[in-house]
Structure formats: structure tokens, C-alpha cells
Design a protein that fits this description.
The structure holds two protein chains of two kinds.
Chain A: E1 2-6, H1 10-20, E2 27-31, H2 34-43, E3 48-52, H3 60-68, E4 78-82, H4 89-93, E5 104-109, H5 114-127
Parallel strand pairs in A: 1-2, 1-3, 3-4, 4-5
Chain B: E1 4-7, E2 10-13, H1 14-36, H2 41-62, H3 67-93, E3 97-102, E4 109-112, H4 114-119, H5 125-129, H6 142-155, E5 159-166, E6 172-183, E7 189-198, H7 200-251, H8 254-284, E8 293-296, H9 297-303, H10 305-312, E9 318-322, E10 330-333, H11 335-352, E11 358-365, E12 369-375, H12 383-386, H13 410-420, E13 424-430, E14 434-442
Parallel strand pairs in B: 9-11
Antiparallel strand pairs in B: 1-2, 3-4, 3-7, 5-6, 6-7, 8-10, 11-12, 12-14, 13-14
Helix pairs in contact in B: 1-2, 7-8, 8-13, 11-13
The chains are: A alpha/beta, B alpha+beta.
Transmembrane segments (chain B): 12-34, 40-61
Catalytic activity (chain B): ATP + protein L-histidine = ADP + protein N-phospho-L-histidine
Domain Histidine kinase (chain B): 225-445
């Protein structure tokens, strides 16, 4: 399973890579920005993208929209990660219902535990198989 | 009663009418006597008639010789004077300027109370009376004041305006002016009565309050941003220490394992604090979607007896349950949040109670609400502290004397949760005997 992590925060990239590394079947690649992430997705085929909600420049939500309208990328499931209360309905409503973009398959709020991360990744991969 | 009577175009003082009437009466009678009798009898009759009628004429004209009327008049005058003195002293006592001014171009000041004289910095009443209505306000507002005064006089009703007052020494200050026209017997506006309130103090208070509000908001914003910013590095610490924990087990190094446990534990503690700050700000700002489920609170507590008991284990406390039997208590709330409240109460009871104590969890059902009490056998709370138990950062009040960890948001969050479901929280306590924390929720139909 190939997983792409896109987050401008270097340590979060390392952290997620280390945690997902506990499962030997995951192959993790980290990108530090939306632009590089998009290029990487177009170059190599990924099964899942873990995406930071808020990034300088192109935000996670913008990237999701781009992916949803791209014939090749619209089948890649995305898990959005943020320190903001992204699971709260009120928050979603005041941010254009980003959770309804077709590629968004999961939401993960910081701080999360290893089990939460692995569980979320596994469940999204299972439902989109 | 008016003292002047209009007779065609003549203005006649009322008093003259009785005199004229008597003169007419005398004239008719004398004319009659002279017509039908002859002197000297007629002169005798006239003199007799005049003298016999004089006393009543005097009484009628002057009303002065009637002792009863006179005493009544005096009493009335005295009462009026007393009333006047009463109101006059009230007016001078009033901590607001009361004044009246004439309805003419200059608006001459007719009257002003002591406070008004002092407020505007004048020497005395006469000094103030030299002024016109327009002189006691800032010149820049002249046009507005004039038009509002004209409007007031025309419409004959009470008005409230905010102007800039002008003291004798030229100092400007904000005022509120309540004015009402004085209407005379001819239904004409003879002047205006005004009450003037100095707003400088109020304005200062308002500014201070606004400042405090914005500081409070800034503090909340800071906490919110700080908590969010803390979350990202916290994620790395938590996840990496958890990974290390797993790895140290496979390596079998007990020493490192212990240290990693400590690291992980502390990171968890930090996470709890960050969560508390965020929960509090979210509940305060109603960001949270308030989840509403109808459930049986008694059943919920019964289902969680074992997890509640586990909270008491670290300090070997016992928990006794006194849950109302064979009854249901349906409430509308978020069961997870309500359990959070109960857990917090029990957690506090364990922390602040003596070891080996028995904690009692009791439910009380009334017609309208269900109450849940958690009683410990702890140190109790001093009476002066009870009032602030459910306030924000209650622990920070005396940070040097703190005995337990935490930043004092736990009970505050409990209050926010319970109150957002229209319930109440409270505590009864006696020093040395222990405390009873309780919350209640209104009952709803199943």
C-alpha cells in the first residue's frame, strides 16, 4: 500500500511516517507542500493521501478540490489532518463543508494516538478497496 | 384661579369685581331710597343702610375679617411653604443638576439647584442666573440644541439628548439632558424644566469595562491559539513516545522503558490540559454543536459503575452507589459529556479525599429533575472558597498553595456542560468533614 503524507510541518511528516512504519505493508512518502504533493501523485500511483488541512499557499482543501476534478486523482481517498476541530459540524459548515468533497474519506484531529492513526488509515483503505 | 378677567378688550383684576358689585348694590339701594322717601328720613335710611352693610361688604371684598377663613388660609400657606421647603431641599440634595429656563431667545436661566451650580463651576445661584440656556453647552452644538429645543416646545413632550456641557472655566464634559416643557394656564410653554446628568464618570466606567472585555477576549483568543499551536508538537511527542514504548518492549530494556513511560505520561497530561482549555473555550463560544440525546440517566450511571469504581482504585477509595431503584430518569443531553461531569466529580473526590475513604454516589429523583450527588470524606472546602469552585481557573487563585495538579478548569467545564443542558451544579461542604458535589438535569418525556 502506497501512502502519501502532505504536511508543511517537517516533524509531523516524520512522525506519521514512523507510526505508519509499524505496519510493514505500508510504503510511506512525505511531501512538504501541496504543489510537490500534486506532482508526486501524478508521477506515482498512491492508495491513500494524508493531508494537512491548513498549509501556506495551496491549502489542503484546495488540493482536495483539485484532486476531485482530476480524472486520474479523483479515486485516491484523502484523510484530512488538523489541530482545528474538523470533526465538528459547526466548523465544517463555516468552512464550505469541505468534508463533502468527494475525495475526503476521513478526518483526523491532532493530537492523535498511534492506534487512532492506524485505525483510521486501515478503515479508509478497507472501504475504498 | 386666574387673577385677571378679560372683559371684552379690558383686563380687569378679579378683586375689583366684588368692589364694583357692592358699589352697584349701594347705588341701586340709594337710588331707590331717594326715589321713594324724602329727606331727612332718606339720609337717615342711607346712613343706616350703609353702616349695616359695611361689615359684610368688607368681608366679601377682603375676606380678611373672617377669623375661621383666615386661620385656614394661614394653615394652607404654612403647608405650602413646608412642601416648598421639602422639595427645595430635595432638589438641592439631588446629585443631578435640575434647572429651568425661560422660553425666549436667550433662554434665561430661571432656577437651578445647588448641584447644578457646583457642577458648572459657578459661584452661586445669581451668578448662574446671568447665563442663558445656550451658554451652558459647547458652542459647536448650538444649531442642534436650538432645533431640538424648538422641537420640544412645539411638540410639548419630554425629550432626552446628549450634549457637551460647558463649565464656567471652559471645561467641556459629556452630559445627558432630560427636558420637559413647563406649560402655563394658557396652555402655552412658558419655559423648560431640565435634569442634567454628568456622563463623564459613566463614560469612564464604560471605557474601563470595554477595555476589560477586550482584554478578556484577547486572553481567550490567546488561549485558543496557544492550545491549537501546542497540538501539533504534542502529536509528535505522543506518537513518537508511543512508538518508542513499543520498540523498548521488543528490545527488553526496562530502564529506557520506564523513562519512555514517564515521557508518554507527561505528554498525556499536557494533552489533557490542552483539551480542557479548548473544551472550555468551545463551550463558552458555543462553537460546539450541542448534541442532544434522550436517555435514562439512572441506567447510564448503572452501566458505568465498574469504570467509576476503577477511578477510585489508585488511592484505595471505595465507592458506594445509592441509585434510585426501579425508576427511570429521562433527560435530554449528551451522555458522553454527562459522564465526563460525573467522572470529574468522582476524580476530585478521590484526589481531595483521604485514602481508604468511602465515596457515595447518590441519585435523587423529584417530579421535575434528577440530581446526582458525589460525597467524599475529604478535607472539605473553606466557606470563602466555595463560591469560586465552579469558576474559570479556580486553582490559579492561590497557585503557591496548590495541592493537586491541574489548572482548575475541570469544574468550570462541568458547569458549562450541565448549564448548556439547562441543569445546575453546586457543592455543599464543611471543612474537615468532606464535600458533596452535585449536578441536576431537568426531566423530559421518554
Amino acid at each position: 500500500m502506497k501512502i502519501l503524507v502532505i504536511d508543511n510541518d517537517t516533524s509531523i511528516g516524520i512522525t506519521i511516517k514512523a507510526a505508519l512504519g509499524l505496519n510493514a505493508s505500508y510504503e510511506v512518502m512525505v511531501c512538504l507542500g501541496a504543489k510537490e504533493g500534486l506532482e508526486e501523485m501524478k508521477k506515482n500511483k498512491y492508495n491513500l493521501v494524508l493531508l494537512d488541512f491548513m498549509m501556506p499557499g495551496i491549502s489542503g482543501v484546495d488540493l482536495c478540490k483539485t484532486m476531485a476534478s482530476d480524472e486520474k486523482l479523483k479515486y485516491i481517498p484523502v484523510i484530512l489532518i488538523s489541530a482545528l476541530p474538523i470533526s465538528s459540524e459547526v466548523f465544517q459548515q463555516s468552512n464550505d463543508n469541505f468534508n463533502r468533497i468527494s475525495v475526503v474519506k476521513g478526518l483526523l484531529e491532532k493530537p492523535f494516538s498511534v492506534a487512532e492513526l492506524l485505525g483510521k488509515v486501515e478503515s479508509v483503505l478497507n472501504t475504498t478497496k | 384661579m386666574r387673577n385677571i378677567i378679560h372683559f371684552f378688550s379690558l383686563k380687569i383684576p378679579r378683586k375689583i369685581i366684588s368692589v364694583l358689585l357692592f358699589l352697584l348694590y349701594f347705588a341701586v339701594v340709594i337710588r331707590f331710597v331717594l326715589e321713594y322717601s324724602y329727606p331727612p328720613q332718606s339720609y337717615f335710611l342711607i346712613v343706616l343702610f350703609s353702616f349695616s352693610n359695611l361689615p359684610s361688604a368688607l368681608i366679601f371684598i377682603s375676606k380678611k375679617s373672617n377669623p375661621y377663613l383666615l386661620s385656614e388660609l394661614r394653615a394652607t400657606e404654612k403647608a405650602l411653604q413646608a412642601t416648598y421647603r421639602h422639595w427645595d431641599s430635595l432638589l438641592s440634595l439631588l446629585p443631578q443638576a435640575v434647572f429651568s429656563y425661560a422660553n425666549n431667545a436667550t433662554g434665561n436661566i430661571l432656577f437651578v439647584n445647588d448641584f447644578g451650580v457646583k457642577l458648572f463651576g459657578y459661584r452661586d445661584l445669581d451668578d448662574f442666573k446671568k447665563m442663558g440656556y445656550l451658554d451652558i453647552f459647547d458652542k459647536s452644538q448650538k444649531a442642534r440644541i436650538m432645533s431640538e429645543r424648538a422641537n420640544l416646545i412645539e411638540k410639548k413632550n419630554t425629550m432626552i439628548s446628549e450634549y457637551v456641557g460647558l463649565k464656567k472655566d471652559g471645561t467641556k464634559f459629556p452630559v445627558a439632558l432630560y427636558s420637559t416643557p413647563i406649560i402655563d394656564d394658557d396652555h402655552k410653554v412658558s419655559g423648560v424644566l431640565g435634569i442634567l446628568i454628568d456622563l463623564s464618570e459613566i463614560k469612564r466606567f464604560k471605557e474601563t469595562i470595554d477595555q476589560l472585555h477586550s482584554l478578556d477576549q484577547a486572553k481567550d483568543d490567546f488561549l485558543n491559539i496557544a492550545a491549537h499551536e501546542l497540538k501539533t508538537p504534542l502529536t509528535s511527542i505522543l506518537v513518537v513516545s508511543e512508538i518508542l514504548k513499543t520498540k523498548s518492549k521488543t528490545l527488553g530494556d526496562q530502564e529506557i522503558g520506564k523513562e519512555i513511560d514517564l515521557l508518554f505520561g507527561e505528554a498525556e497530561r499536557l494533552k489533557k490540559i490542552v483539551d480542557q482549555i479548548l473544551t472550555a473555550t468551545r463551550f463558552e463560544n458555543k462553537h460546539n454543536v450541542i448534541k442532544n440525546e434522550t436517555f435514562d440517566l439512572l441506567a447510564l450511571i448503572k452501566d458505568h459503575i465498574s469504570s467509576l469504581k476503577s477511578l477510585a482504585e489508585p488511592r484505595k477509595s471505595q465507592i458506594n452507589f445509592a441509585i434510585t431503584e426501579r425508576k427511570e430518569a429521562w433527560v435530554s443531553a449528551d451522555p458522553d459529556k454527562i459522564l465526563e461531569v460525573l467522572n470529574n466529580f468522582v476524580d476530585n473526590a478521590v484526589k481531595y479525599g483521604t485514602p481508604d475513604q468511602t465515596i457515595i454516589i447518590k441519585t435523587i429523583l423529584s417530579a421535575t429533575e434528577v440530581k446526582v450527588e458525589v460525597t467524599d470524606q475529604g478535607i472539605g472546602i473553606a466557606p470563602d472558597k466555595i463560591g469560586r469552585m465552579f469558576s474559570k481557573f479556580s486553582q490559579l487563585e492561590n497557585s503557591l498553595a496548590r495541592t493537586q495538579e491541574g489548572i482548575g478548569l475541570g469544574l468550570y467545564i462541568c458547569r458549562l456542560i450541565v448549564e448548556s443542558y439547562k441543569g445546575r451544579v453546586g457543592v455543599n461542604s464543611a471543612v474537615g468533614k468532606g464535600s458533596t458535589f452535585y449536578f441536576s438535569l431537568p426531566l423530559v418525556k421518554k
